[in-house]
Specification:
Length: about 100
């Protein structure tokens, strides 16, 4: 998960490079975040499956983007560009330090 977060931060900051060489900040959702079933995600105590990483990635975006409400309005294949909010991201990190 740490590598996934690292990659997402690179995309959000426009530092990720793709085959074409561009450094787009655009994210396209393969599954609409607003359709994620959080009850299903929370029903498995103590273990996760590969597809659960998507839930966690959406949660991470929610904690770093000032336009986070927009995430949950996107349909499959729609474009999203995160407006990075350093204060939100720092608050999320601080909240996790008790773990």
């Amino acid at each position: 998960m740490c590598r996934n977060v690292e990659w997402m931060v690179c995309v959000v900051e426009g530092k990720a490079s793709y085959d074409r060489g561009d450094r787009s900040r655009e994210i396209r959702f393969t599954h609409p975040p607003g359709q994620l079933n959080i009850d299903d995600f929370n029903s498995r105590p103590g273990w996760y499956i590969e597809n659960d990483i998507y839930y966690l990635e959406v949660c991470v975006l929610n904690e770093m983007c000032s336009n986070r409400a927009e995430i949950f309005t996107k349909a499959e294949g729609e474009s999203f560009v995160c407006e990075f909010d350093a204060a939100l991201w720092a608050a999320a990190g601080k909240a996790l330090t008790w773990l």
